[in-house]
Write a structure and sequence with these properties.
- The protein is an alpha/beta fold.
- The chain contains nine helices and eight strands.
- Strands 1-5-7-8 form a four-stranded mixed β-sheet, with helices on both faces.
- Helix 5 packs across helix 6, helix 5 crosses helix 8 and helix 7 packs antiparallel against helix 8.
- The longest helix has 23 residues.
- The mean pLDDT is 85.
Length: 305
């Protein structure tokens, strides 16, 4: 295939469609095209290069050729549970660049710079400066109160009966309708956020507010946009009592991402957040040049060529 087709030119994240859910089929490459083949042998072409990430639900298989093409196109593959409510694994479309990884780690490891980044996150999230002389733990407490109040206000606005944010991912159907809608909505947001973080060359695991999880930084960044995008969409769907709420939530999130131009905002926001730490990113950390130099990137910073 490489001898026939020209080199792939990754599309920047901000120019792509957000997210597609797939299940009950095998992802493969046929005649150079990315396709989903179902059990009846029916093929559906997927424009993989124009999608941020593919959410692979139970019943999906992926061929080696499909994994290679997705990686070259810079499309993140994410293996999730039913309706996307549990993330099992993610295949990187690029990965952390050493300079940006060290920059991110240095900011997270220093108590002063980490607090500056956290304060900036809360400022962007709530639209006002955070209280002075507060630790990260104290800021988390303030956040928790505001988040619970926001859930209550949105539930009241959309006429949804609300108790509290609570669900058991091992017993998905046991959750009430609003919580199921919220979980499906945040799964969509986490998917596109992780894809953007990887495309920008940073590490999803190195968080500032959250820590100890493979997607800690994903949660940090997604929380900035959550209550302006997917949470209202989830409550709106819940207010209609749909037959298939998870499907309706995914469609609502897709439309919301487009309306709010979310993909154009995530990577610049990451840069703004980290710049609040007031450290200069390292320019050159290597002492030995690579044996095979990388080609000049034509996608986002973390896309592999």
């Amino acid at each position: 295939m490489n001898g026939i087709l020209p080199p792939l030119k990754p599309i920047a994240i901000k120019e792509r469609n957000s997210i597609v859910f797939l299940r009950y089929g095998e992802l493969d490459v046929i005649d150079g095209a990315f396709v989903l083949v179902d059990k009846e042998g029916v093929r559906k072409h997927i424009p993989v290069g124009g999608i941020v990430c593919l959410m692979l639900e139970p019943g999906t298989r992926v061929s080696h050729a499909a994994s290679v093409l997705a990686a070259r196109a810079g499309t993140l593959l994410i293996w999730v549970g039913e309706s996307g409510v549990r993330l099992y694994a993610a295949g990187q479309p690029g990965g952390a660049r050493s300079d940006r990884l060290l920059y991110q780690a240095k900011l997270a490891l220093d108590a002063n710079t980490r607090l500056k980044v956290v304060r900036k996150m809360y400022e962007m999230r709530f639209g006002e400066p955070t209280p002075l002389r507060r630790s990260i733990e104290q800021l988390r407490g303030i956040e928790g109160v505001r988040v619970r109040k926001t859930y209550q206000l949105l539930a009241k606005q959309y006429g949804v009966k609300w108790k509290r944010r609570n669900y058991d991912h091992t017993k998905w159907k046991s959750g009430d309708l609003p919580n199921r809608c919220l979980s499906a909505a945040t799964a969509c947001l986490y998917g596109v956020t992780e894809a953007a973080i990887l495309a920008a060359g940073y590490a999803p695991a190195i968080g500032f507010i959250h820590s100890g999880k493979p997607q800690s930084f994903v949660y940090d960044v997604a929380d900035i946009f959550k209550f302006d995008t997917v949470v209202p969409a989830a409550f709106k769907v819940a207010s209609k009592h749909p037959v298939d709420p998870e499907k309706d939530v995914r469609h609502a999130c897709r439309d919301m991402f487009r309306q709010t131009r979310l993909l154009r905002r995530i990577i610049p926001s990451i840069e703004e957040i980290l710049a609040a730490g007031e450290l200069q990113p390292p320019k050159d950390i290597g002492v030995v040049a690579p044996a095979i130099p990388n080609k000049e990137g034509i996608g986002d910073a973390g896309h592999r060529n």
